[in-house]
């Protein structure tokens, strides 16, 4: 009995500790169940936006250009040979008939002499055939020869005459070629380019000098294909000389190349200068200001990067009450990197221009730091291009 009583005493503190630990765990569990879970953070995407408006789109693009003559002749020899002298330099004024350069005439003169000898030989054969025909006809009257012999003599005489005429024509050609040893000017003008030097062996048609004919001047410049599509002959442009930017010159587009350059992929444009004071000198560098696209007058435009293409057509994302909303739009064209909107947007709406592919309908958005929300979508920066290459 004494042993049994001692064992109950020994178990009593352990049981008390177990009960206390269980109660504490229960209290902790109840306390944990009583607390609510933390709410998830809301997904707010940063975006860039612009505020669209109406008005004239841009002030027109500006391109580098060069002043060139409207008519430029590339003069060359009509025969090949070694050029012995060139009598003009850059800037030399020339008159019709003035000798500009000469070839070595020796070979041409020898060819001319050979042609003259062939003419003399053909003439002798013709005279012999004529005399033979005359004798044959006299013998035929006396019945000493047959009629076929007379016909044969007449045929030989006609062949000799044809050979003589051919030799004369060839001699005339050789005479002309001998005269071609001197290169002369066709019209009045000024030398603007030299393509050959004395001592050089030239082929027929190879350019020797370039002459600007007349006083009319063109401004020549290159346009990217997108900008050239809206340009037509008769469109006025403004020209500003780099040497005298304070005095703009009017010009009118005269030619627009129908195809782009296969290497540079640009369109060559020529405009006639209206320069009565003669401010534009040949070879001068200038800038050409194109008029603004008339389609953009009082139009709403957005950057091309803001446009979303889908099965239902084009659309843009706008910010409405702090959330993104997709708005279908109708396009009327483009000017540079701006898309003209015909319907779907109104002035004052905020259009998302960056981050459009990572947002969904109704998603909360916020402006990226440092981005002004009131940036205008109607301003197109002036474009520029490399100076037109002289070709």
Automatic annotation (TrEMBL):
Residues 220-291 form the CusB-like beta-barrel domain. SUPFAM superfamilies: HlyD-like secretion proteins (SSF111369). Keywords: Coiled coil, Signal. InterPro entries: Beta-barrel_RND_2, MdtA-like_HH, RND_pump_MFP, YknX-like_C. Residues 114-170 form a coiled coil. Residues 300-366 form the YknX-like C-terminal permuted SH3-like domain. Pfam families: Beta-barrel_RND_2 (PF25954), HH_MFP_RND (PF25876), YknX_C (PF25989). Residues 115-169 form the Multidrug resistance protein MdtA-like alpha-helical hairpin domain. The keyword Signal applies. It comes from the Bacteria. Residues 1-37 form the signal peptide. Belongs to the membrane fusion protein (MFP) (TC 8.A.1) family. This is Efflux RND transporter periplasmic adaptor subunit. It comes from Piscinibacterium candidicorallinum. The lineage of its organism: Bacteria, Pseudomonadati, Pseudomonadota, Betaproteobacteria, Burkholderiales.
């Amino acid at each position: 009995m004494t042993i049994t009583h001692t064992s109950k005493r020994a178990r009593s503190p352990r049981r008390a500790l177990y009960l206390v630990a269980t109660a504490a765990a229960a209290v902790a569990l109840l306390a944990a169940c009583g607390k609510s879970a933390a709410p998830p953070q809301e997904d707010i995407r940063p975006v860039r936006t612009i505020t669209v408006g109406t008005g004239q789109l841009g002030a027109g693009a500006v391109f580098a250009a060069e002043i060139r003559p409207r008519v430029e002749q590339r003069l060359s020899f009509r025969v090949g040979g070694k050029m012995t002298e060139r009598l003009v330099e850059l800037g030399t004024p020339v008159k019709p008939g003035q000798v500009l350069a000469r070839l070595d005439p020796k070979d041409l003169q020898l060819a001319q002499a050979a042609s003259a000898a062939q003419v003399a030989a053909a003439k002798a054969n013709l005279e012999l055939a004529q005399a033979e025909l005359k004798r044959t006809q006299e013998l035929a009257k006396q019945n000493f020869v047959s009629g076929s012999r007379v016909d044969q003599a007449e045929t030989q005489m006609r062949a000799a005459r044809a050979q003589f005429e051919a030799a004369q024509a060839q001699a005339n050609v050789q005479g002309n070629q001998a005269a071609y040893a001197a290169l002369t000017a066709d019209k009045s003008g000024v030398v603007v380019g030299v393509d050959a030097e004395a001592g050089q062996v030239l082929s027929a048609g190879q350019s020797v000098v370039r002459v600007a004919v007349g006083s009319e001047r063109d401004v020549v410049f290159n346009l990217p294909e997108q900008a050239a599509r809206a340009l037509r002959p008769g469109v006025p442009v403004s020209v500003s000389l780099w040497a005298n930017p304070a005095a703009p010159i009017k010009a009118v587009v005269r030619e627009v190349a129908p195809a782009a350059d296969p290497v540079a992929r640009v369109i060559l444009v020529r405009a006639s200068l209206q320069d009565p004071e003669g401010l534009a000198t040949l070879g001068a560098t200038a800038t050409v200001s194109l008029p603004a696209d008339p389609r953009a007058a009082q139009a709403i435009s957005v950057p091309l990067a803001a446009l979303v293409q889908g099965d239902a057509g084009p659309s843009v994302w706008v910010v409405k009450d702090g959330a993104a909303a997709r708005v279908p739009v109708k396009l009327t064209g483009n000017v540079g990197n701006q898309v003209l909107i015909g319907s779907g947007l109104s002035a004052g709406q905020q259009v998302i221009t960056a981050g459009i592919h990572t947002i969904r309908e109704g998603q909360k958005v916020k402006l990226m730091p440092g981005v002004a929300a009131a940036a205008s979508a109607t301003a197109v920066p002036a474009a520029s291009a490399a100076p037109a290459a002289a070709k």
